[in-house]
Amino acid sequence: MSKLSLLFTLVLLATSNLQGQTERSAKDYLDSGVARLQKGDVEGAAGDVSKAIELNPRFAEAYFLRGNLRLAKGDFDQALADYNKVIELVPNAPGIEKVYNNRGVIRRYKGDQDGALEDFSKAISLNPQYAEAYHGRANGRADKGDVDGAMADYNKAIELKPTLPAVYIDRGISYFQAGNLDKALPDFDKALELAPGSAHAYISRSIVRGLKGDVEGAIADIRKGASLNPASVAEGGKANFTTPFERLNEFLTSNPSNARAYELRGALRLIQGKGSEAELDFRKSLALDPTLKPGVERLREAFK
Predict the structure, then answer these.
(1) Which of 47, 132, 227, 284 could make a disulfide contact with 262, Cβ separation 3.0–4.6 Å?
(2) Crossing angle for the helix pair 76-89 and 96-109, nearest 10 degrees?
(3) Does the predicted TM-score (pTM) go above 0.90?
(4) What's the burial of 179, exposed, middle or buried (CB within 10 Å: 0-12/13-18/19+)?
């Protein structure tokens, strides 16, 4: 072998060895990030995963994990960039439906409803047994007013995975918005059976109970929800997230003569410390239906 050939061979071997070491090092950082995450060290995990990407800019698994960490933290633009990179690098990899689903979640949050629906549908086409993607598409369809399509997807998600509390909450909300209180109530019951710490489910159920005339049930749920998370009774929530209070306002817009709805809104305002506004709602309730006076007095007493 000539000296030139030998030198070329050694360069190839050195490059190959260096590449292998770099990839192993990137994998080590990813493994370390996973281990940190399992211990609750989210910031440390994010740092390790970013280091893995720095060492291997084509490490799709690392982009996916970092995207998930950023999504959980609320860094939606950065998470979106990571998910886009995964799809660019490995568009046909096993499990890629999870990336499409998570990207759909972000797109929906950012108001890109068509993009979100496209991603959820893509995830379903890749894995027709993916319950979370049906849930996401159901929410997207509900956003666009496709009630029948949303219900079909909620039902499919529950058929595939009957232990997802958020699906029951969201289907219950859809039933509520359609005026079907009798179907909404058992969905909130089921959600609380699966997730007894869900303040959102308690406040949502309190509204249904109150509208059905169960004042004591509504009081119990409002108290529980507010104790778990005071923000659950707030009038305004995060962008693209409708609070139970806001849904009650929407209900009143469609049903301006519903005395019980004013009664309930008064209770929610009273627990927020908005006594004068609560009193206006209570008076409106009694003007529409004087027979509700015992319930109104009970709510005044409960949340004074």
Answers:
(1) 284
(2) 150
(3) no
(4) exposed
